[in-house]
Structure formats: structure tokens, C-alpha cells
Amino acid sequence: MAPIIEIQNYSWRYSYAKMPALNGINLIIEEGAFVGIIGPNGSGKTTLAYSLDGLIPSQYRGIKQGAVNILGREVEAYPAGALQKLVGVVFSDPEAQFTAMTVEDELVFGMENLGLSVPEIRERLEWVTELAELGHLLEKPPYEISGGQKQRVALAAVLAMTPRVMILDEPTSMLDPVSRKRVFDVLVRLKEEQRNTIIVIEHNLENLASLADRMILLSNGELLLEDETHAFFEKMDLLLENGIHPPGAMLFIHRLMQEGYYASRLPLTVDEAAACLTEVVARLKPPGPASSRG
Amino acid sequence: MNKTLLGYVPEQSPIYAVHPFVKLFFLLVVSLFPMFIASPEWNLALMLFILGLMWLSRVDMRVLRIYVPMVISMGSVIFLSYTVLGGVHPEFGLAARIAGVNIYWERIRDASVVYARILPMIFTMVFFLSTSRERDVIVAMRSVRIPFVVTYVFAMALRAAGMVLEDFQIVRQAEQARGFDTAGKSIPYRIRKYVMYMIPLFALSLRRSEEFANALLARGYAFTGEASRVKRADYVLTHYSFRPADLLLTAAIGLAFAALLVLRFGFGYFELERSWFIAWLKTALD
Amino acid sequence: MATHAPSIPGAPGKMTAEQIWSVEAGERRPVGVIHIVILALLIGIGFVVGAFGSISFPLGFGVNFFWTGIAVQQVGAIWFGAWGVLAGTIFPFFSNAVAGTPFYISLAYVPANAVQAFLPAWAFRFFKADPRLQSGRDYLILLATMIVSSAFGALWSPLVVLRGFGLLTTESVPLFIWGWFGGNVIAGLVFNFILLKALSGVVIRTPSFVKRWLS
Fewer CB within 10 A of the terminal residue: chain B, N end or C end? Predict the structure, then answer.
């Protein structure tokens, strides 16, 4: 797979800030990958997301060094509106993303900006409505629906533009667990059915860990760790040092590993963890008396 | 229920069968009618007609309660302006003398004419606001090919107004949670304290501007450059069709206006001399 | 390679008024989506705040004893240049409409509102007054422009508009002139100074702040 994103020695310092928000970032993301980005607050995750979408430096004042390339071209080299055809961003606050009167208008807005025709819009509208389960909400004002529904609308609105890269900046931070799961269900479908490159910035790793192909750890503007997901979570001590809270099931098995009860691959999901525990218990269980019948 | 600019209208209302352009045309043209009608009875009849349209459209007539104090105060201001503050005019007929102030018949007549003119203008606007959803206004504007950026600014402004109102409630509740409430306090106190609301409201809106701009850019919207010249599909217009009935209504409104002008300037209708209301008022005051 | 570094020396607290309004050599200030958004937001805020004033303290025909919308009109124009002037011209039309002022009367008020928004914005830029109101001169410029612009509005609207529409007698025009003038100046005294003092320091750092007229 050819790289779709290439970041070379990239640093960004906002005007009036003493320290750079991102410092010396080098990163390559292959097309079609599902990448998770984690890090404590203030680590530069959102700055990175904005840098990939061209919002930095076009909308923010600061000092940039290095290069951010999308499909081999620097983000600043794209004319206004062109990069957004390739890179879509879903922000953490769905309320702040809505400028239309109805959910349908919200979904259609991006497609109209692309210059699509009415039949094309209709077709894509049907597709994203089905994907994100929004059929019953189309006539409603977007600010009158629930938080989870809002975030699905925001996701669908960006998806309707069929960007090659989708970036979701803490899409579930304001949602309850049920709504969070529904958003991730959409992401699961996207991963299975589409070939978008998906980058998710999240604090909550319960759902992200099982979906991501690769994980990135940012801290204080620096890229501390980048690896395939299983290998990423093997570096548990580094993650814990940097304030990352892996899923509880994963932490539990890690403790068993530290105690010497388990030495295989770290599980990413509760089901995998249950399988690990079953294996551990089976090994520890003393052999019982041979059963006899008759 | 469908939310209009001034409240809610049931989904079954006949007003939704009317194309938004017709509603806008009605507002623009019918607002002019009173300017050419001097006879108060005709203007009052127009006002009743508009109220009747509101009732037919199944608008919740309680929305009119907001305007009752304003209508009364405006009427008081007009009558005071014309009578008590009307000056000394020996050439006018004296209708009464109250506390040393001359009240002239011509001033009472003129005040009645002006007040009767204002009322249908106000209710034409109220009718429009109470039967038009935000989307309708956008569609009406797009139907007459007003540039997209203008209609979009208008839509965002409406959205912003809603958010400011929500923010106001939040800020007010936050202040109340700190034991700070304006209820039952004097006007100067309230004015001083509203300043404390304005600052966070402005600050919230400024922060929101950055988020809105990012959201627009993320959806590929551009104000300048090639992306701004993209031909837009105007998908929202596909939900509305300008039918023969709409054409008839538009024509009827236009013809009514033309007929009004012909009757007014060609045949002297709607003038004061022909007004039975003015004749009755004069008799009553004599 | 360093890019997009505004060469504004020092922290915003140390900037002079001259520096606030001056565009540095090489400084790029493109007109963008943010300005459209600011325009829309100012119209929205003004619509709510103006309608509050129109409904709460009415004299009649959109003239008010205490018009809170003046703050959005004038402070918005100082901060955001032509976008603020445009918003300040447009939003009273809507706030008056909701308050019951007839369509064509609201339309006829447009020149008055345009001048009320334009004059403070022009004066601050022309005289390089500090929007943070750091000196007596800044206060004086603001006060003077508030008075002059409201005086124009007060003459235009009752005299030209309301008298022209036949809604007022000649003798009652002074009441409405003073009502318009007083309603704007008093509300401006209450809100403009405090808003500028409290928020200008933040606003001038944002990309939406307009140094010239459009960006």
C-alpha cells in the first residue's frame, strides 16, 4: 500500500505560545489503514488532526517547520476547498459542526460544495443514511437530536463527501457508552466495507483498540510510540507512564503477565481476555482424580 | 409540529402547501397595501383578513399575545404624538380641551389613519414569521436566485440567534447558581447585571466562530477561489415545486396590488373623504 | 522552513495601538470563511440582543429608550471592520421585524444603522485608537463617535423615515429624536466600554480580528 500521509520532521508552534504544540513529528500512514492516536490532554493530537486537514496553517497563526504531505503533495499546495475533498474531519463537539436547518441539509451541504449533481447527491444521501441509521431523523433540526445521533450525523456528513482520509477527533468524548458503541459500530462497518484511511483520536480505548491496525502515542508534542496495535500495547509501562489507561481487561491480563501467569499475546478485547483467562485457569487447575464410571 | 420562526404550526397546516416564494411575495407586496389606503376601515379589514389567514393556517394564535403590549403602546404613542404633542393649530377644529391642552379633530383623525395603517403592516410580518420555517426562508431566497453566500449567512445567523438564546439561558442559570438573580430587582440593577451576561455571551460566540469556520472548511466550503465558484445543486429546492396554484396565488397578490393602485389613483377609493369610519368618528366626537 | 509567523513583537499585552491596526510587511491576512462566519454570528447576536431592547423598552416604530443592540453594532464594527458594519446594518432589520416594526420602515432605517456602525469603526482605524481603551484619548474617540453616529441616526430615522411615512407629526419628532439618540447613547455607555475593555485583548489575537476593513 502506498503511503497516503507523510509527515516529515513537522513542528508547529502557535503564535503567542512558548512551546511548540508538535515537535519533530515523522510519520507515515498507509492508505486503507485504521490508525488510533492517543495521548494525554495537550499532547498535540488535535493539532495533528488540524495539520492533516489543512486547517493548520490556513486558519491558525503560528510557525511551521517541516512538511505534511497528503498523496505526495504539501497541504499548503492544495487550493482552498481541494484538500477537504481528500481529507474529512469530524470534530469532538457535534453541536459546533452544524450550520444547517435539518439533518438532511447537513448531510447534503458537503456534497453541494463538491459540485455533485442532484442524482449523485440523492444516491450518496441514501447510502450514508442507511450506514449511520439516520433515516428517521432527516427532517429534524440537527440541534434537537441526542448527542449520539448528532455525532452520527456529523460522521455521515463527512462520509458523504467520500474522502480518502477520515479523521475523527475524539468523536465520542461527549457521548454515553451506548451512543459511543453506536458510533463505533459505524466505524466497524466503514472499515469492513470501504477502503478509507481512518484516523481516530480517542481517550477511551475500549472500542478503539480492537479496531485499529496501528496505534500512535503522542506526548508533549512528540511522537513517543508508533506500532502495530498488539505490539503497541505490549509497551504497557510506557503507556501507563504517559497517563494512558488501556482497557481494563487488557490491564488485568498484563498484571497476570507481570506475575508470570501468562506469557502470550496481549488481548485487545474482553472476549480475547476471557480466552486468555480460561487458558491461565486451565493451566493452574490441579489435575483431578481420574474419573471412573461403572 | 413544525417549528417556524415565531413558534410552531401543526404539520397538517394548509400553509405548507404554499411555496415559500409565495409567502415571501405576500410579505413584500401586502406590506405595501396600507401605504396606499387612507380609510381606516379598509386597513382594519386587511388586518382581520391577515389574522384570518393565520387562523386558517392553524397558527397558534397565542403567539399574538407577545404583540398585544407592543400594539397598545404603539397606539398610545401615536395618539399622544398626534394629540397632546400635536402642537397648536388654530386652523383645526377643536374636539376637546384636556388639562389646558387642545385636542384637535384633524389630529385624532390623522392618528386613527396612521394607527390603522401600522396594524396590518405589523400583522403581515407576524403572519410571515409565524408560518415560515427557517428552511422556507432559505428556499424563498434561493428561488429568486439570491447568491448562496447571502442565503447561507442568513441561515447561519438564524442558527446563531438560537445558540445565543441557549447560551443566555446557560449563563443566566450559572449566575443564578451563584446566587445572582435579576428577578424582582430594579431596572438600573438589571441593566448593570445584564452587562455581566453580555461579556460571556460575546466570548462564547467568538469561540464558536472558530469552530463554525473549521466545520465549514472541513465540509469543503470556500468563500474565495475556485471552490467558491462551484455550481451548487441546491438540493433543498427539490423538495419544493412551484405549482399552478402557487402561480395563481402570486398572480392574485400582484393583481390585487395593481387593482388597489388603480382604484386609489384612478377612482379615488380608500381616501379619507369616502371613509365611513372617519365620518362616524367625527359624528361621535361632535 | 518557518512560515506564517506574524511579526508582531512581544505579547499582545505589550502591543501599541499603532501595532494593533498596522499590517506588518509580509503579514498575510486573507479574507476567508471565518469572516463570513463572524458576519453571521454578529447578525445572530445582534438579532437577539436588539430584539430584547426593542421589546423591553419601546417608544414605537423600532425606536427604543434603551437599545442594547448598539453594543453589537458598534463594538462588532470596531473589531471586525466591514463585516461588523454590514452586520450592524442588517441585524436591526430582523430584530425590529420580530418586535413588530413594519417591513418597509425597518428597511428605511438601514442608512441610520449603517452610519452608527461605520463611524466608530472608521474612527478607531483612522485615529489609531486602542480598542482595549488604554488611554483617555481612546475613551474620548469612542464617546465622540457614539454621540455623532447616534445623532445622525436620530435625525435620519424620526425625521426622514417616520415623518416621511407620515407616522409622526412635526411636533412629536423631537421626542423620537431624543428617544433614538438617548436610547443608543445610554445603552452604548453601559455596554460598549465594558465590552471593549473586557474582550478586546482576546479578540485582537484571533484570526477573525480585522485590521483594515476586510481582513
Answer: C
